[in-house]
Amino acid sequence: MDLLECPICLFLMCEPATMSCGHSFCRRCLGNSLPSRCPACKERFKQKDTKNIKNNVLLFSVVEKCCPEETRMKCNILEKLKTSEYTEALRIVDEAIQLAPADVSLKLWRAEASVGLTRFSEALKDLEELCYLRPNWTEGFFRKGNVLLEMGFQTEALIQFHRCLKLQSDFSPAKSQIKKILEAEGMSVPEEVPRILQVVSEYIKEPCPPITSLSPAAPTHSQTHPQGCPRGPKEEEVDRRDSEAGSKVKHGTSTECCLSLCQAVSFLPTAEDDEEMMMMRKEDRQSRGSCSLDRGDSLSVLTVSDFECPLCIRLFYEPVTTPCGHTFCRTCLERSLDHNLRCPLCKQPLQEVSSLLPYFKNRKYNPTVLLQEIVSRLFPLQLAERKLVYEAEMAELSNLTKDIPIFVCTVAYPGVPCPLHIFEPRYRLMMRRCMETGTKKFGMCSYEHGKGFADYGCMLEIHSLELLPDGRSYVDTVGGSRFRVLKRGQRDGYHTADIEYLEDHKVEGLELEVLQCLHDSVYEQAQDWYTRLNTRIREQITRQYGPMPDKDSDIQASNNGPAWCWWLLSVLQLDPAYQTTVLSLASLKDRLGHLRLVLEYFSQS
Predict the structure, then answer these.
(1) CA-CA distance, 187 to 498, in Å (whole number)?
(2) What is the rounded CA–CA span in Å between residue 167 and residue 354?
(3) Could you give the CA distance from residue 12 to residue 290 in angstroms, rounded to a whole number?
(4) Which InterPro entries match (predicted)?
(5) Which among 421, 430, 523, 405 is positioned nearest to 475, based on CA atoms?
(6) Sequential DSSP letters for 520-572
(7) End-to-end alpha-carbon separation of the chain, Å?
(8) Which residues make Cβ contacts (< 8 Å) with residue 290, sequence separation at least 6?
(9) Per residue in 62-96, pLDDT tens?
(10) Rg (the chain; Cα; Å)
């Protein structure tokens, strides 16, 4: 399929719009006959979302640049149809067909103008040809059914709506028309499509009233197509089979009963015949390649500058399109939304758009597939360079010793939970980068006047992150390794640092025995203090910090020492400067000495 063709109607995209799944379609194809799922990725669509989706500005300019005359002409026709100027629209279409007889999409516009002028026979002729050339285009058969219904051929219209449901079982407009026709006959129609078809089968067994001759339901094919292309033997076989069915449908006298729907449906191709016919027509259309429009060379007019992000002024990488129709690199848009939940270009509020709510909640915004395909096809080298730049940035952000992100807030401890409420734009960016790089880690330091943050801190690992629709987030983290700051820096508004990790000095022999005795003594002292707290306070401590950890069998197993020491420090809520001092100690003996003094003070008070 041509890159610039709509996946639904297979014509050149007119007023392209991009859905939340990242696939783009004609705006008209996203109208009343919107499919329940994306034809490409099967993601479920919501009818209300299409009301907020604007034309994709970049795609519109791409189509206009590649096919200027065709785009301008079709936009003119569409404008006339919107304002019900059907005569003028028909005149423009007829002129366009004279200039471009191979463009079958013009027949669609002419059929719509003919319907507006109640010239149903002319509209039916164009729709017949479209349905022949697009045998899997559901909307074409639906339009044809509506025209037949306007002409009073209810049975023949039902055949077309039946074909729609065969092609696409969730095509709700055809389902609604069938229900409308059958309910007008006093029948109760279920909601499930298989049940609807079953009810139809029962209904069509009844005889129908006599009719006069029927207007042609199938076009009479000459030895050449309207496009002026010679017909092949396979096409003649398809025409023969179509004409056999058509001869059964038509009646020449008023005394003959009209064909029942049961009989009419039997003339529709079976699944095997349908597949065979579609394959034959596909092969036949391929053999007539010279008769179809070739837009392959039209993409050559595009340049790299046509695909530059308006925020970073670089080639798009993972381009995403907002409901207002503007396109940005994913990371560029996310950084902009950290500061303001509006489109960076038109300033439309984006948090009010229902289709974006899942994005604001999960930060999963699908790239615009068509733009990715165009860029990868036309500019593979530039895209490869752009990808290398992005990967280099991610690799730099993944380093856990150089330029690690520093969250300046409080003192964190190894193994102790540290829940955070993220609302500042710089820290929103920090959290997102930690998640994207896969490290899920950052440093936590307390504030220190004159330096910006303390010389010692603790790494935090993200366990869960809950995004809110307004961009804020709740982050559950747990303390990891301690570190000492070697060099301070900044990146995009937040602090960074080069660090070295701290480990407790190990002791052996007699020193270890003395250390073990001190450890057991201070642990019993801490337990005694904790048990003497009233029940309400203990419950609050347990909810926030968890229960007091047990003694470790090996007090030197961890590089950070026993977990209960850090738990106790977090519970005691000491002065941040004193907490940082204890955090920086690489001697378990010194740390236990500080804890003993603090516990004695608290016990006395």
Answers:
(1) 77
(2) 30
(3) 17
(4) Lon_prtase_N, Lon_prtase_N_sf, PUA-like_sf, TPR-like_helical_dom_sf, Znf-RING_euk, Znf_RING, Znf_RING/FYVE/PHD, Znf_RING_CS
(5) 421
(6) HHHHHHHHHHHHTS-HHHHHHHHHHH-SPPPPPSSTTSSTT--HHHHHHHHHH
(7) 81
(8) 229
(9) 999 998 888 888 888 888 988 899 999 999 989 88
(10) 36
